[in-house]
Amino acid sequence: MLTIYEDANFSGKVTKKYFEVKSDKAFSQEDIQLLLSGLMNTEDPRYEIFKNKKEEIVKILPAAQYEAFDKNIKMNTIIKKAYNPDTKTLNTEYFLTETQRKPSEKSRLKKCW
């Protein structure tokens, strides 16, 4: 996808539209790759598809890999919200509150650091 890194929001909308049109067909390996390419946080339009189509996705992608990817997306969302690009600082209070509020994310955090 040409715009995946140039305009992630547009890319997400295009991908979402693709899956709306394809809604009645089974997922292929290429579909999963398309869905996961550029999916960086839970605010991305593709994340809704990722969550809603879990059952179909895990027919191709191992469930453990799906769960690891989901945890990573959630952690990326927390980091994105906690980071201020203007000051290049992390809102540690928000970051710790969010990661402690979600036990699965807390264990993921320990693995990352």
Automatic annotation (TrEMBL):
Protein name: Uncharacterized protein
Organism: Elizabethkingia anophelis
